Amino acid sequence: MSLTREEVTSVLGPVDDALAAEVLATGASLAELSEAWAWLNADEAQLNAYRPMPTGRVAQLIDILSPPDEEQ
Questions:
Q1: Cα atoms in the Cβ-side hemisphere of radius 13 Å centred on 33
Q2: 3-state SS assignment for residue 68
Q3: In 3-state terms, what secondary structure has residue 47?
Q4: Phi/psi at 12 (nearest 5 deg)?
Q5: Whole-number mean pLDDT of the chain?
Q6: 22, 29, 54, 63: most buried by Cβ count inside 10 Å?
């Protein structure tokens, strides 16, 4: 089941309309968004728990939610 704006806010906190729309456009579920958020905030813990690297929508959400690289 696809996410709602309220579910996006419940996981991520307040977000702007553009980010919310991008997340919603993925068609991800609440579980997928929660998993992506967990990877972003505790990737080492996920690896230590021998969780497989994210793929599919979870990986797409991680790309969307990750801060941009500051490489020049």
A1: 24
A2: coil
A3: helix
A4: -95, -15
A5: 86
A6: 54
Q: How far apart are CA 9 and CA 20, in angstroms?
A: 8
Task: Report the alpha-carbon distance of residue 6 to residue 12 in Å, rounded.
Answer: 10
Looking up tokens 């021998």 gives 50
User: Quick check: 72 pLDDT over 50?
Assistant: no
DSSP string, the chain: ----HHHHHHHH-S--HHHHHHHHHTT--HHHHHHHHHHHH-HHHHHHTTPPPP-HHHHHHHHHHSPPP---
Residue at token pair 């996006």: 8
Q: Two tokens at 2?
A: 């696809």
* 28, two tokens: 């991800």
Higher pLDDT, 5 or 44: 5
Q: Work out the burial of residue 36: count CB atoms within 10 Å of its CB; fewer than 13 is exposed, 13-18 middle, 19 or more buried.
A: buried
